[in-house]
Amino acid sequence: MRYFIIGFITWLQLIEPSRGNVNLLERVDAVYKVVEEESLPIDLFLPATAEEPVPVVLFVHGGGWFLRSKLDYEDYATILAINGMAAATIEWRRVPPNGFYDQVADIKDAIRWIRANGPQYNIDPDRIGIYGSSSGAHLAALAAFNRDGDGFGDDDPEGPSSEVQAAFLHEGLYDLTESINQIEDLVILVFLNGATREENIEAYEAVSPIFLVNGNEPPTLLSYGSEDVAVPIDQPERLERALLDAGVEAERLVLDGLSHGFIFFRPWTRPIMMERLLEYMRETL
Question: Is the full-model pTM beyond 0.85?
Answer without folding.
Answer: yes
